[in-house]
Design a protein that fits this description.
This protein has about 100 residues and is mostly beta strands. The chain has strands spanning about 10-15, 35-45, 45-50, 55, 65, 75, 80-85, 90-95. The strands form two sheets. It has a six-stranded antiparallel beta sheet, with no helix packed on it. A two-stranded antiparallel sheet has the order 3-4.
Length: about 100
């Protein structure tokens, strides 16, 4: 990947959209919701505080995170889709979870 996040930003590979409901009904593309979780691929160095120190980012590469539905900026690099978020847009880190689960 040729993306390097700056400041307190992170790069997330979004989970795939749900194509089937829990009861087995297949959803058309228009009914599929935008994913709100994904895997962190890169983390910036942190936010610079007024004192000049760096505030570290609370997530690490490989973490599975939940973020707001309309958070971040979607980008496409070499045919792959990513979301660039500020660390403060991350709502939670899922421990022991995989993106497809």
């Amino acid at each position: 990947m040729n993306l390097k996040p700056l400041h307190d930003r992170i790069i997330v590979e979004a989970a795939s959209k749900e194509q089937q409901t829990a009861s087995g009904i297949y959803l058309p593309d228009t009914a599929q919701e935008k994913p709100q979780r994904g895997t962190v691929l890169a983390v910036g160095p942190g936010k610079r505080l007024d004192s000049g120190q760096l505030a570290p980012v609370d997530v690490a590469v490989g973490d599975t995170v939940l973020y707001g539905k309309y958070s971040g900026t979607e980008v496409s690099v070499s045919g792959k889709d990513y979301v660039i978020l500020r660390a403060e847009d991350v709502l939670a880190v899922l421990e022991g979870a995989k993106v497809g689960a």
